[in-house]
Amino acid sequence: MTKEAKAKGLGTPGSCEVCMAWGLHPNPGGSKILCYACRAWWYKYPADSCGTCGATVPLRNRVCRACRHQAAFVAGRIKVPSAGHGARLDLTVAAATGHQTFLADLIKWNRRHHLTARTAQVPELPSETLHRHPLLLKSPGSIQLTLFEPVRDFRRYRIPNGSKGRSWTGFTPVDPGYADFLVDRARDVAAVRGWNHCTIKRVKCGLMILSALHQPSERIKATTVHALSRDIDVPAVHLIDILNDLDILLDDAPDPLEQLVRAHLTVLPEQIRVEVTAYFDILRNGAPRRRPRSPHTVDIHLRLIVPFAAEYCAPRYSTLRQVTPEDITDWLSKRNNVQREIVALRDMFKTLKSQRLIFADPARRIRPGNTLVSPPTPFAADQLKQVARAAAESPALLAVVALTGIHALFPHEIRMLQDSDIELSTRRLRRGEVSRPLDDFTAEAIRMYRRYRDARWPDSANPHLLLTQQTAKRKSTVSDFWLKRLFKGLPATAESLRQDRVLEEAIAAGPDPLRISTMFNLSAQASLRYTRAASQAGTETTTG
Questions:
Q1: Do residues 81 and 70 lie in contact, with contact meaning Cβ atoms separated by under 8 Å?
Q2: Cα–Cα distance between 438 and 446 in angstroms, integer?
Q3: pLDDT tens per residue across span 224-283
Q4: Fewest Cβ atoms nearer than 10 Å: which of 57, 96, 246, 493?
Q5: What does the alpha-carbon distance between residue 264 and residue 269 come to, in Å, rounded to a whole number?
Q6: pTM
Q7: Beta bridge partners of 47
């Protein structure tokens, strides 16, 4: 190494005789081995005994260069300070800490490296940022506007055969790194949500096709994903979830609730349609002093108001301004669900009056009194036996019947009930912040449904108790439509079973509203409804 270094003119390897730094030191014919910095010190400053370490070397202000470097090192400085700044350093620190050996002629290089790191970073080009972080992109400087939106035809693509899924046919990604990023993201989501191999393969194929049609800096439209799912068997719901999580989805799909509202209102005359449409726009989107309502509430009001406007108002009037209180009373006298109809009509006319679309509110003095609420009625024995026979063949229906018929849970509480809320080991059922004991029938029904669920969806990561083929691969709850479909063809529903259970408790324990309210988490008005029905049922039994 020494011969090679000398042959190349790099200097003599060794330790500097002044600062003890090890490195390749230039020694043009001299007997001493000195680094570049100490050569200047050797000719500039006189040699004497250092006031800190006692070495006989060139000194500056009675301190050698090695002690100065150690003082700067301890103080966290990179460059040895000059004479003007040396007074602020404790130059005697080397006597207590000793000298930290270092490589010669690297102090200046370290300083240059340090200053380079502190300078402002030069912004990278979009292409370089794109290659490293496909989703954290800057907006492009110029955007090519779309003249017209073409109709995409995905039928020329197909899902590749084989287990590995590498033989993609009919498309090539614009940026392979970006496509791999999306596929890796799909694998992570699949591991969390328990997707099977077939679902993972179809999701991968959909992401590869979308990456072949879009630039990494381009957002993917939801309508494109639905068109892809329509032409090829790929799950649009899973693709939209992944793209939405990555914030690269442009949700341009039409709102299904808005389409439902428009479809129901097409049968109305023009002026009535304008007025009812204004009400539902406020109901869905809110107003300066009104919050938007849930889609479920909008759907209920739609099914209650449209029959009144189409069947009663449309043949008689051309606008809702002509409706009188007598018209509303006449309509309600022929309806079954009077309580909800009054609430919906009062809300609609009050909103239209506040928006100055009508002159007076005809439903203002019509109150939804207690007499309009239909009292709960108990089920007959043959009806309960029919429900029991159907529940014995369906584990999901059996679990729902147990939760409604014994614990009187609301349908929405059953849909939102998580698997961790039921502890079979301790026989407890958590209902919000309340924990109640679990009976044998409900525990056995839950145990049977868990065995059924684990056998059908063993890899599902959905935390809810009830699952379907769609929700098993996601984290959402089952739909209200699915819960109602369980009771199709039966003389009962989940809500009617709940009411029958509360009424049974009111009859058995006596008309005590406080007990009913505490036991089933009901309001005072609702508990009075069951106690009145229980008192009436007891009176009829005594009379009979």
A1: no
A2: 10
A3: 888 888 888 888 888 888 888 888 888 887 888 888 888 999 989 999 999 999 999 999
A4: 96
A5: 12
A6: 0.56
A7: 58
